[in-house]
């Protein structure tokens, strides 16, 4: 059964979940957020991309800040960039442009390529949303990494699509449970903007939101 509009969850939460289930719950269940250098730099990069608007460049229509939705996966979000490339078939028409155009999402990240699939799953979710919205099939998409300033082409194969669907299901299960997982120290914690509020003094099963409220009384 498809999800309703009220049940849609942010595409960005997929990456949070794959990075750390507790981080995902803190952000999307408890409404806890904190900035660090990495998150600020990432936010500024996304804002810069979204401010540039749409344009036709080298035969490619570039749309920025495209709203995305998949009722099948129960996801909603906004893309950084969707490029529309000319296609012989299997594309969609665009206003004031001739022919068919195939969408190709491009996600912008401030850092470097990661061995884990978290960035690729987020990108795959954007492509699945576009496929559902436009009735097309998108074989590839791209991630632009700010540190090396280059693109990584991502093949949207069955393996990645299955991981994306499984992660979306896990996300809805986590949010529906209303339970924040316990805090376990991991090496990746040092790069998390929430490290200062996630672990200290909260105990294994205490709510960070309630803990912060008590501290600030």
Describe what you observe in this structure.
With 217 residues, this protein is an alpha+beta fold. The protein has one domain (5-215): Lambda Exonuclease, Chain A (Alpha-Beta Complex), CATH 3.90.320. The protein is built from seven helices and ten strands. The protein has helices spanning 12-19, 21-28, 37-51, 118-134, 158-177, 195-198, 208-215; strands spanning 9-10, 55-57, 60-64, 67-70, 75-78, 81-87, 92-94, 97-109, 140-145, 150-155. The strands form two sheets. Strands 2, 3, 6, 7, 8, 9 and 10 form a seven-stranded mixed β-sheet that branches. It has a three-stranded mixed β-sheet with strand order 1-5-4. A hairpin with a 4-residue loop joins strand 9 and strand 10. Helix 1 packs across helix 2, helix 1 runs antiparallel to helix 4 and helix 4 crosses helix 5 (158-177). The termini are far apart. The relative contact order is 0.18. The model is unreliable at 35-46, 200-204 and 211-216 (pLDDT under 50).
């Amino acid at each position: 059964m498809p999800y309703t509009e009220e049940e849609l969850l942010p595409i960005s939460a997929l990456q949070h979940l794959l990075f750390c289930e507790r981080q995902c719950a803190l952000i999307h269940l408890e409404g806890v957020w904190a900035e660090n250098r990495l998150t600020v730099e990432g936010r500024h990069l996304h804002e810069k991309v979204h401010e540039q608007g749409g344009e036709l460049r080298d035969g490619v229509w570039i749309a920025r800040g495209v709203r995305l939705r998949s009722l099948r996966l129960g996801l909603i979000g906004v893309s950084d960039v969707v490029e529309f490339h000319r296609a012989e078939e299997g594309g969609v028409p665009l206003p004031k442009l001739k022919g068919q155009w195939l969408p190709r999402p491009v996600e912008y990240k401030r850092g470097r390529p990661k061995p884990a699939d978290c960035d690729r799953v987020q990108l795959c979710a954007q492509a699945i949303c576009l496929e559902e919205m436009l009735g097309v099939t998108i074989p590839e998409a791209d991630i632009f990494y700010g540190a090396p300033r280059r693109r990584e082409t991502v093949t949207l194969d069955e393996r990645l699509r299955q991981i994306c669907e499984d992660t979306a299901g896990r996300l809805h299960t986590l949010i529906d449970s209303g339970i924040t997982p316990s805090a376990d120290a991991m090496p990746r914690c040092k790069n998390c903007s929430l490290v200062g509020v996630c672990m200290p003094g909260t105990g294994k099963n205490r709510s960070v939101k309630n803990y912060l409220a008590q501290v600030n009384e």
